[in-house]
Amino acid sequence: MSETTTTEQLREQVRARYAAAALTVTADQGTASCCDDTCGDGGPCCGSTVLEVDDTFGGALYAATDRDSLPVSAVAASLGCGNPIAVAELRPGEKVLDLGSGGGIDVLLSARRVGETGFAYGVDMTDEMIDLARANAAQAGTANVEFLKGTIEDIPLPDESVDVVISNCVINLSVDKPKVVTEIFRVLSPGGRIGISDVVAEDHLSLDARAERGSYVGCIAGALSRQEYLDGLTAVGFTDATVRFTQQVADGMHSAIIQATKPETSLQ
To answer: I need a labelling partner for 135 at 20 to 30 A (CA). Which of 2, 21, 43, 46 fits?
Structure first.
């Protein structure tokens, strides 16, 4: 099997899984989760089925006041491993971009924080998630949002068009993470920043060891190590990069908060 075919198959597996999650929520059949079906021991990674959410993945990671103020389907479709809104320090008037926006929970919360003078974009490659997010925005009566169809490796926004980039347990699913980081740097305005939640491996874990702990579409096998994350951010020009583990999701694997800043002026 060629490398190209493998990449295409991984992307399609991710798309199919999250399309199914969106349809599950739309059909009112349960909640969705990034949680893996099985871990290396053959048992469930974080719950008995992918339609259940515990305190490792999903809407439980948000404050009750935030959850209760949003459409139920936005919370039910939350697939994340953290709460990037809690660390992004959003300010009124800012433009925010959420990569892999899913059912729209982080976009809707961001729109509230940046206020009427700000704006929140969401990018997702799954038609079903885009449809669900737009419906959630309409139900919430949130006007300062836009959901765009696209991949996080090729963000459909102009250069230097946003102040903050957030993402919630999505970059680990990318088939080309260096391209994602390059794109994030491109769309950020000078002085812009990132506040990302993701699954990150401890540095000693090999790629094979990560794969033993969970599948690619389950947010585990494709995770970067802490040092790989830091090196990737630094390579494209980010400064003040940090990766802080917050919660263990598998042996040697953690939910983490990733932060960094784009310099005010070019270093070149």
So the answer is: 46
